[in-house]
Amino acid sequence: MTTKVYRWFMLAALGFCGSAMAIDDYVLGPDSQRKEGVPKGKVEKFTHKSEVFPGTEREVLVYIPAQYDGTNPIASMVFQDGSSYAGEKGPFRTTIVFDNLIHEKKIPVMAGIFINPGSVKAQKAGEKDRSNRSFEYDSRSAQYVTFLEKEIFPEVQKRVSLKNDAASRGICGISSGGICAFTAAWERPDMFSKVLSHIGSFTNIRGGDAYPGILRKAPKKPIRIFLQEGSNDLDNEHGNWPLANRSMDAALRFRKYDSRYVEGDGPHSGKHGGAILPESLIWLWRE
């Protein structure tokens, strides 16, 4: 872990912010870099046309760890905005992190399911495809998790055998993908028990700002949640992202959820979330 990232963990745990540090100057640690002697998993890709989201088409990437024996079911984790998480040159480099942490036995042997948002093909020449991202990710409903259950998991199971219990499944996303991850587990805790949200949009894009109030009054659900946020995140007509995530953290702590909140100094960026991804995954999957 880098010195700065370690300091941020300590400062966040104590409730301080590091204003003396340069904003968003996070760097990736050794677990986010290729290491000699670490087996490399493979990534398979397919295109999916959805019925749950009619007319949409998307790319899905499936990471299969080198330790998968081809028979015994393994754990899995879903990532929204999949290409940004799976790429080896972006802020997250999740497949590299998986290779290292699985090899070091810091997380279980698991598959990564990297799903891009759906798009609707243009009907006329000169028009652009229409993204379905906000509807899929920001809506506070069970539609997206139904899409995962009925369409994506069956396709992935053709490539790798997965465990079907909630304890063996996690879900992650950034921004609108972060609130999407929480919604999936909230609606179906029988499917997902672990949530990782990076700069989650718990704001009034499509009613997500209601979650802190809902959390305080609803029966407690068997979900473990890691929230990452930046103190210089967005503040616009939909809401204030740092305040929204702090409200989520307060509600989760009030209801005594197994949760963790880490706030850095970044804007609406994946740099901080990427820098602490290895530690986030280790915390989330600890058993």
Could you write a compact summary of the structure shown?
By secondary structure, the protein is of the alpha/beta class. It is 33% helix and 22% strand.
Which stretches are low in confidence, meaning pLDDT under 50 for 5 or more residues running? 5-20
Q: Measured on Cα atoms, how large is the radius of gyration? A: 18 Å
Strand content: 15-25%
CATH class: Alpha Beta
Output the CATH homologous superfamily. Alpha/Beta hydrolase fold, catalytic domain
Helical fraction equals 25-40%
Q: How many domains?
A: 1
Apparent shape: globular
Oligomer: single chain
What can you see in these coordinates?
This protein has 287 residues and is of the alpha/beta class. The chain has a single domain, classed as 3-Layer(aba) Sandwich (Rossmann fold), CATH 3.40.50.1820. It contains 10 helices and 12 strands. It has helices spanning 3-14, 82-86, 94-103, 133-138, 143-157, 176-187, 211-217, 241-254, 271-275, 277-284; strands at 42-49, 56-64, 75-80, 110-115, 119-120, 130-131, 169-174, 194-198, 224-230, 235-236, 239-240, 258-264. Strands 1, 2, 3, 4, 5, 6, 7, 8, 9 and 12 form a 10-stranded mixed beta sheet that branches. Strands 10-11 form a two-stranded antiparallel sheet. β8, α7 and β9 form a beta-alpha-beta unit. The longest helix is centred in the middle third of the chain and has 15 residues, at 143-157. The chain is globular, with a radius of gyration of 18 Å. The model is unreliable at 5-20 (pLDDT under 50).
